[in-house]
Write a structure and sequence with these properties.
Layout (H helix, E strand, L loop, with lengths): L2 H20 L4 E10 L5 E8 L9 E7 L6 H15 L4 E6 L4 H7 L7 E5 L1 H12 L7 H4 L2 H4 L3
Parallel strand pairs: 3-4, 4-5
Antiparallel strand pairs: 1-2, 2-3
Helix pairs in contact: 1-4, 2-3
Length: 152
């Protein structure tokens, strides 16, 4: 993987971590799920938020950023499949960048079960602010209106 892709991923993950820290949400980065995927690889998630109102057993955040078109559609689709098959916690995917705009829109219809939403970075920030602003709107379903949830 090119160095710039790794660097971009690290930048996005550090921004997500900072949002969680500002909201005083306890989290672990690169958290192991203790399961293996269909390729027999151990699954680690980008973030596991241990507890938040509306998520008493925590939730998972995965992040994807892509500024160029390419194989991002397949990568995000594979991540979505893994979430549905192997993740036992509610999961939010933060997917953004010019190369992921189309993929994010097409995959929003696939959210179900523990796979709660695919959010842009701006939507994620809004969701985080709702977690720490004391309004009591904590879960993703409570944060967005029914009309907005149709977008996810």
């Amino acid at each position: 993987m090119p160095r710039s892709a790794n660097r971009n991923g690290m930048i996005v993950e550090s921004l997500i971590a900072r949002c969680l820290e500002l909201c005083e949400l306890p989290y672990e980065s690169q958290h192991p799920l203790n399961v293996v995927d269909s390729l027999n690889s151990k699954i680690r998630v980008d973030f596991f938020v241990r507890q938040a109102e509306g998520y008493p057993n925590g939730f998972i955040i995965e992040s994807k950023w892509q500024d160029t078109s390419g194989s991002c559609d397949k990568k995000v689709a594979a991540l979505c499949d893994n979430i549905k098959k192997y993740y036992g916690q509610p999961t939010i995917v933060v997917a953004d960048g010019r190369g992921l705009t189309r993929a994010r829109k097409s995959l929003r219809s696939q959210t179900e079960g523990n796979f709660e939403a695919i959010l842009s970075f701006g939507e994620f920030i809004s969701f985080c602010m709702s977690l720490c602003n004391g309004k009591g709107k904590r879960s993703i379903q409570k944060h967005f209106s029914p009309e907005q949830m149709k977008m996810f």
